[in-house]
Backbone:
């Protein structure tokens, strides 16, 4: 074990759960903010963001001794900007620091200056270093950030959005609902959602078809439900997030399904991306038992789910939407209420149709660049300096160039969304030729065994 001394004013590296280590400064917390019970931690303000949080002592390292190590394992523009902000802070504060040393000397000489605060100790466990590898697979339970505050905006369209007052925040100062929350489905998206619900203090009961996936969340404090029906009967509001329309129907209508646990007043929130016909069917059967129904599909990825930065599209029972306020704040950066059930499904399919088509076009551009003797990296560099620059473009292109297709959003799911969007267009006699063309490329990628890879693996449809 190594003993490290830290105190208010020190620069540190703070590890926020799944996020990479980030440079920050230990500061005094607001007077009205209580320290988490039973936790040895410091209040840290992070550079390059508006975020600040209570961080457990074992998730902190002094800045200077570990600077080179952290720069080697962490990359990215925002990270570099944060490091630059630290260096600028040090440069500006150099004179002040020298002055403070002079004050400390006077204090030691008994000149009336207040003595420096006694540093606290940090014990670093040699057998478990949360900083190694740049990110952790364990859900964050060490922080209680306070920077995200929400406001409700009524739009001319009649929809309502709940938005963070500070869009740079990762999570927020959330008062969790006293309602008991159930969650069915712990896949790429559901796992991050449940982790954030637990972090923000919600009481959550979980179920998953593969029961082993529940174990990690039980360790975090979740309760275990044996069947979907049992979860619904135990909880006031039950969310579900599964892969497709068939899975959503089976979960509700199947043996020991949701419908068997529905009683008057019970709330069911369908977060899966499915077609509007499935949503309307589920809404009707839930309502027939006296239940209250809301659809709330999410726009984002596994990383955004982990970060609590999803965009939630909701429709159905407005009172359920309001009851879910603290849950939506925990899992997302903004949410929209779009009216009657089915509207959120329609909007989500349109969004994913655009995203899927765009991804296929990017892959087509990268392969055409290679086929014509152009540098793919240069193509990406130019793309990221123009009007189409975005985190999405940068991340997906980097995935392709590195050959890293670890799923952030399954290729098979974006193909399913394209198929459903095309069908929705057919139902209103609206042409979708671009989506149809993209859909064929994804089907080709699926035939090449890319279904369980990230959507960016559509690239492989062009090179085989």
Residues:
């Amino acid at each position: 074990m190594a003993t490290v001394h830290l105190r208010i004013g020190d620069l540190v590296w703070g590890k926020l759960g799944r996020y990479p280590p980030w440079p920050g400064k230990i500061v005094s917390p607001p007077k009205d903010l209580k320290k988490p019970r039973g936790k040895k931690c410091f209040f840290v303000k992070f550079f390059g963001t508006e975020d600040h949080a209570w961080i457990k002592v074992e998730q902190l390292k002094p800045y200077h001794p570990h600077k080179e190590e952290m720069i080697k394992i962490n990359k990215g523009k925002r990270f570099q900007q944060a490091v630059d902000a630290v260096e600028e802070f040090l440069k500006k504060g150099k004179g002040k620091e020298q002055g403070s040393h002079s004050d400390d000397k006077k204090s030691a000489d008994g000149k009336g200056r207040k003595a420096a605060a006694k540093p606290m100790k940090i014990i670093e466990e040699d057998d478990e270093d949360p900083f190694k590898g740049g990110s952790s697979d364990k859900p964050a339970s060490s922080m209680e950030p306070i920077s995200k505050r929400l406001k409700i905006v009524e739009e001319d369209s009649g929809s309502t959005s709940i938005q963070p007052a500070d869009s740079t925040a990762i999570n927020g100062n959330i008062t969790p609902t006293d309602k008991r929350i159930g969650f069915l489905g712990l896949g790429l998206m559901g796992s991050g959602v449940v982790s954030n619900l637990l972090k923000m203090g919600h009481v959550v009961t979980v179920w998953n078809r593969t029961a082993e996936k529940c174990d990690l969340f039980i360790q975090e404090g979740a309760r275990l439900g044996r069947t979907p029906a049992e979860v619904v009967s135990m909880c006031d509001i039950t969310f579900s997030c599964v892969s497709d329309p068939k899975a959503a129907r089976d979960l509700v209508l199947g043996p020991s399904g949701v419908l068997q646990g529905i009683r008057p007043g019970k709330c069911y929130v369908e977060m899966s991306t499915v077609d509007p016909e499935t949503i309307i069917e589920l809404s009707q059967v839930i309502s027939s038992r006296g239940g209250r129904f809301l659809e709330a599909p999410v726009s984002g990825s596994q990383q955004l789910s982990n970060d609590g930065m999803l965009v939630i599209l909701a429709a159905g029972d407005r009172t359920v939407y309001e009851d879910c306020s603290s849950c939506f704040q925990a899992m997302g950066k903004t949410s929209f209420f779009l009216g009657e059930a089915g509207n959120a499904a329609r909007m989500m399919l349109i969004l994913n149709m655009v995203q899927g088509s765009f991804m296929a076009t990017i892959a087509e551009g990268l392969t055409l660049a290679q086929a014509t003797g152009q540098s793919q990296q240069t193509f990406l560099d130019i793309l990221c300096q123009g009007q189409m620059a975005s985190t999405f473009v940068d991340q997906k292109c980097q995935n392709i160039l590195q050959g890293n297709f670890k799923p952030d959003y399954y290729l098979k799911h974006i193909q399913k969304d394209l198929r459903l969007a095309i069908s929705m267009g057919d139902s209103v006699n609206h042409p979708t030729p671009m989506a149809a063309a993209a859909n064929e490329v994804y089907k080709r990628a699926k035939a090449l065994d890319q279904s369980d890879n990230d959507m960016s693996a559509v690239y492989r449809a062009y090179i085989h």
